[in-house]
Amino acid sequence: MRPLTEEETRVMFEKIAKYIGENLQLLVDRPDGTYCFRLHNDRVYYVSEKILKLAANISGDKLVSLGTCFGKFTKTHKFRLHITALDYLAPYAKYKVWIKPGAEQSFLYGNHVLKSGLGRITESTCQYQGVVVYSMADVPLMRAPPPPSGGAGCRGDPQSRWSARCRLRDV
Amino acid sequence: MEGQSVEELLAKAERDEAERLQRITVHKELELEFDLGNLLALDRNPPTGLRRAGPTPEAELQALARDNTQLLINQLWQLPTERVEEALVARLPEPTTRLPREKPVPRPRPLTRWQQFARLKGIRPKKKTNLVWDEVSGQWRRRWGYQRARDDTKEWLIEVPGGADPLEDQFAKRIQAKKERVAKNELNRLRNLARAHKMQLPSAAGMHPTGHQSKEELGRAMQVAKVSTASVGRFQERLPKEKAPRGSGKKRKFQPLFGDFAAEKKSQLELLRVMNSKKPQLDVTRATNKQMREEDQEEAAKKRKMSQKGKMNSAPPRSGGKRKGEHHQGGKRRK
């Protein structure tokens, strides 16, 4: 277990900032306690100082997990955000998409969502923006990252021509 | 007329000459002191002209500078000149002003091991002659160095000593002994140097072959020997099943687990600030989209007006008609 290096921190922040933007400061600097990121076996855990001190007493090979796992670093040192981070990303998400109950199940099982399945969407969401997907009961379901090829801006009213395809991209 | 013009010319020439002389002669109350080796001219005249000048003494300063430079150049022209590759060159004398030190005084070096020992024992260096009489060659040879007086590596006949192996090569033995002495001397010199500069020498623990080295020591010695070639071990052969050593790079250092939390937070916030500052404030795509949308709306409004005018001309106006189109939201509610 160790703290993240500068490079690793930067990579991770860049990934998380795609969903929550400047609100990332609120994760780093919390009024209700000191929370920090620690790396253990290539996985990044978001853990309070109290829990961290307790976890330090467990030997590294016996320690499975601590706090909340935000994601892991792959072999080529790219950061992959996990669904366990959703609880922390959802309240700070900048762009949200609500889907109707009918499309919800289909989405959770990995299918695309058509435009008719969308309930609400945050205004001024660009095409190809990374969003957090909610059910109509305001339960965060998933995050939907932008597709690999960066999108061009959409012309005209974003709603009428928005390609509403959210792909399941989580472990 | 011509005479007058000739006279005029002569007068003009005289005037020019006088002017030139006036330009190059400068009158000073106190003579300047010159140090031509440093191209230095020292003016001890009181600067009354400058004091009188007032807030902007630019002109007076310039005049003073010109005068002093003129005097210096006059002095330079009086030096002996010579011609060096088609250029006329004045040979400057030795500088007389002593300049202060450029670099600070060197700090005293720590004593070498021998110097410490000699100081302890009170050994003073004995004055020795440079040349020694060499019987063999019948000349004066230097005490040490090239073609020294008693060079035992250059002997052509060596008696095998009593207890030695008769098949041993005594010449090779002497040369080997000399090499070892030289190497030892070099090592001590480097150690002294490292002590003087407070540097660390790479430790040679376990490198000397005793009979009782552990497996790790032997392994380390082997690694070091492998890397101690001119190509730093790149072309050394390996045994058929020997693997490349792992972890022979530099060990990475990480922050401690419970470091300063406040400092960690601060550095992360700083990183975030830098990241945010790099992002452009103006989102170009959104701005262009907004612009295009506004243009579209204007065009649509214009078209509607035109069509309305046409309708008004052709049919009676309908009041309270529903206006569909612009304000239709569609199925989605904007948050």
UniProtKB/TrEMBL annotation, chain A:
PROSITE patterns: PUA. InterPro entries: NIP7_N (IPR040598), Nip7_N_euk (IPR055359), PUA-like_sf (IPR015947), PUA_sf (IPR036974), Ribosomal_synth_fac_NIP7 (IPR016686), UPF0113_PUA (IPR005155). GO terms for cellular component: nucleus. Signal peptide: none annotated. Keywords: Nucleus, Ribosome biogenesis, RNA-binding. It comes from the Eukaryota. CDD domains: Nip7_N_euk, PUA_Nip7-like. Residues 1-83 form the 60S ribosome subunit biogenesis protein NIP7 pre-PUA domain. GO terms for molecular function: RNA binding. It holds the Pfam family pre-PUA_NIP7. The keyword Iron does not apply. SUPFAM superfamilies: Pre-PUA domain, PUA domain-like. Residues 96-141 form the UPF0113 domain. One of its GO terms (biological process) is ribosome assembly. Gene3D superfamilies: 3.10.450.220, PUA domain. The keyword Secreted does not apply. Required for proper 34S pre-rRNA processing and 60S ribosome subunit assembly. Interacts with pre-ribosome complex. Belongs to the NIP7 family. This is 60S ribosome subunit biogenesis protein NIP7 homolog. The gene is LOC115280555.
TrEMBL record, chain B:
The keyword Iron-sulfur does not apply. Pfam families: RRS1 (PF04939). The keyword Lipid metabolism does not apply. Residues 229-254, 278-335 are annotated as: Disordered. Transmembrane segments: none annotated. It comes from the Eukaryota. Keywords: Nucleus, Ribosome biogenesis. Residues 320-335 have a biased composition (Basic residues). GO terms for biological process: endonucleolytic cleavage in ITS1 to separate SSU-rRNA from 5.8S rRNA and LSU-rRNA from tricistronic rRNA transcript (SSU-rRNA, 5.8S rRNA, LSU-rRNA); ribosomal large subunit biogenesis. It is found in: Nucleus. Its main location: nucleus. Residues 235-245 have a biased composition (Basic and acidic residues). One of its GO terms (cellular component) is nucleolus. InterPro entries: Ribosom_reg. Belongs to the RRS1 family. PANTHER family: RIBOSOME BIOGENESIS REGULATORY PROTEIN, RIBOSOME BIOGENESIS REGULATORY PROTEIN HOMOLOG. Involved in ribosomal large subunit assembly. This is Ribosome biogenesis regulatory protein. It comes from Suricata suricatta (Meerkat). The lineage of its organism: Eukaryota, Metazoa, Chordata, Craniata, Vertebrata.
